[in-house]
Specification:
By secondary structure, this protein is an all-alpha fold. The longest helix has 46 residues. It starts with a helix and ends in a 20-residue tail after the last helix.
């Protein structure tokens, strides 16, 4: 039945999100090490993973929509939570609930990992900016010192000519 297909899609989404979480955790390590080459490779891998997730999620939504249409249920919220109200067997209901719970837990972990990555990148950018600021001499120190005062300035023309 189509409910089993929804369950399979949810299981696949859990698996794909687990892989995405691993990529996110690997990104954290490469950010800490400053290994931009490996980080770039992971970003490409992450993009592919996100495309797969998007495809499976669209397929899952179609399956849920198909079930609602097949059962002639006219509901505004065609979600898995709403679908659970119409699932007949307890085993199918428990299986879907298990997959949904696992998916939510992984998404929360993924969000935390990505927030850590974002914080690490922000700190790295601040450190780089601080380092650049320390290396560049300030214009104030280059142009002025205590010996020169406003009275000693020599006025020069753009053209240094004698007539």
């Amino acid at each position: 039945m189509a409910v089993q297909e929804v369950s399979k899609r949810l299981q696949k989404l859990v698996s794909l999100h687990e892989e995405l979480l691993q990529i996110s955790e690997d990104k954290t390590e490469y950010i800490k090490k400053g290994d931009m080459e490996q980080l770039s490779k992971l970003l490409i891998q992450e993009r592919k993973q996100l495309q797969l997730i998007t495809q499976i999620e669209a397929d899952r939504q179609q399956q849920v929509e198909h079930i609602f249409n097949h059962l002639h249920i006219d509901s505004e919220d065609k979600t898995v939570s709403e679908l659970l109200k119409y699932v007949n067997t307890e085993d199918e209901k428990r299986e879907i609930e298990h997959h949904v719970t696992a998916l939510v837990e992984i998404i929360v972990k993924l969000k935390q990992s990505e927030q850590l990555n974002n914080d690490l990148l922000q700190q790295s950018m601040q450190f780089v900016q601080f380092s650049l600021d320390m290396l560049q001499p300030s214009m104030k120190n280059m142009n002025y010192n205590e010996k020169s005062s406003g009275n000693e300035t020599v006025k020069r023309s753009v053209f240094d000519s004698k007539a």
